[in-house]
Structure formats: structure tokens, C-alpha cells
Amino acid sequence: MGEHPEDQIRNLGIWRGKLEISPLSGGMTNRNFRVTDDRGTAVVRLGDDIPVHMISRANELAASLAAEAAGISPRVLHHAPGMLVMEFLEAKTLREEDVNNPDMLGRIIPLIRRCHLEMPKYFRGPTFIFWVFQVIQQYAGVLKDGESDYLKDLPLLLSRAERLEAAAGPYTIVFGHNDLLAANFLDDGDRLWLIDWDYAGFNSPLFDLGGLASNNLLGESREISLLEAYYEQPVDEALWRRYQAMKCASLLRETMWSMVSEIHSTIGFDYKAYTAQNRARFESAYAHFDGI
């Protein structure tokens, strides 16, 4: 059997004095711990590569270092295979209702722009492209190989993905976070931070914007404000349709991510309920897109 997580942390050899370790909530692809020693407090993330989700911890580390250099994420203090140790911030983890606050959304948008435009200046090493439509194809293959209960749904979902890919172009490419859940934003009272770079890679900016909106249930007026603030111009019909297509794609990807996790994840989380929640959100968003 593998080493117990707390023993893994204790055996890192980087601590000084008495050690206190406590688990942190959240984390659907890794386990997180708060660790305090005589010098202060850190966060330790434990997680190996996850091929079915195309998660590479080497890519996550490179993105974390680039985000630190760009002033977007806290400092990386140490890393080892399957382990990432970061500075602990006394900060509030955002919730959906926080992201829906217009003032908070006004703070989030510049942070997203910095991620998109500044991080490539600091990224070192091979880089990923996180192309959502290829991710959906990957997940379909994993579900087929795993004889998932959702096999009967795949032809319809894949045909919709093909339509969405055609509708979401033409494309521009930026460096995306690609997992803009509310819990990945921290507010220390003075500034915002963006954390968790499991899926980082080059992508359309509309994927992050659509993901932010769909993950946090932004209403249409908030979505328009989001797009106008990001692009610094009014939203025309063409941009609105491209955005709606990519928002649908982000929801379909999240749905299929959960479908795959149902048969492959060992983390204690109700993936079946998460699949149902995101499937319902996707169906609603796709119906709206279909009516544009």
C-alpha cells in the first residue's frame, strides 16, 4: 500500500519544529492539507497524473510557477513527484454569490485578462493546448472503454459538440486557466488570487468566460457586462452567439468530466449528483443557444 498522506507530508524534509497537519475541504482531483510548522503555514496538494482527465502535474507545476511570477497565484515553496507545497494565504474563498456581485466581477475580469495575456511571458517548458472539443472526444473514448452507463447518450452529445465547435469560431488563443470555479478565487481583502492550475493551457478566452458564467450561474445581464468589460466594447450578435456556444461547450465538458470521474475517481465525492447537475445546466444552456 502507498504511504499515508500525512506521512508523505511529514517525510518531505522541508519542515522545522512541531508540525500540525489538517485536511482542507474541496479538491476533486487532489487532496489538500494545511500544514503549520515553526516558520509558518503552507498548503500541500497531493495528486498524481490523471491520464483520463489529461492532467499532468508537470504542467500544473509549470503553470503555478508562471502564475506566481505573474503575481496571480501564491508562491510555490517546494515540489516533489505528486506533491506541490504553496504559501498559505489568509484569504476568503469565493462562492457563487460572491462572483455574482457586480463589484467582485469587476475585480475578477482584470485577473482573468492577466492570466490570459501575462502568463505566457513566464511559462517555461512544454505547454498544453486545452481544446475543449478534443477533450470531449477524449472523454467519449474513456466512457466507451469503461462501458459507462452513459454510452447511449454519447451520439447526441458528440453531435451537439460538433455543432458548437463550428459556431464558436473564429478563434483567438490565450493562456487559459480552464477551471474557473468560484472556489479557485481567493480574496485576501486587498487583492484577488487565482489558484489550482490542473487544466491550464492555451485556449479560447471564451472558454474561461463561459466557464466562469456557467459555473457561477451568472444571469444574462451579468454575462453581457462580463463580455463588455473583457473586450472593452459592446457585445454584438456574432460575439454573443460565439460566447453562448463556448459556454455550452464548457458545460458539456464539465458534465462528461463528471461522467468519467464516476468510474475512475477514488476521491470521496458525489460525482453522480454532480453529473446530473451539470447535465441539467448544459441542456438549459443548449436550448437557449438553439434559440438564438
Automatic annotation (TrEMBL):
Record-listed E.C. numbers: 2.7.-.-
Pfam family, any one: Choline_kinase
Keywords: Kinase, Transferase
Enzyme class: transferase
Domain of life of the source: Bacteria
Signal sequence interval, chain numbering: none
Gene Ontology terms for molecular function: kinase activity
Designated name of the protein: Choline/ethanolamine kinase family protein
Organism: Rhizobium alvei
Lineage, opening ranks: Bacteria, Pseudomonadati, Pseudomonadota, Alphaproteobacteria, Hyphomicrobiales
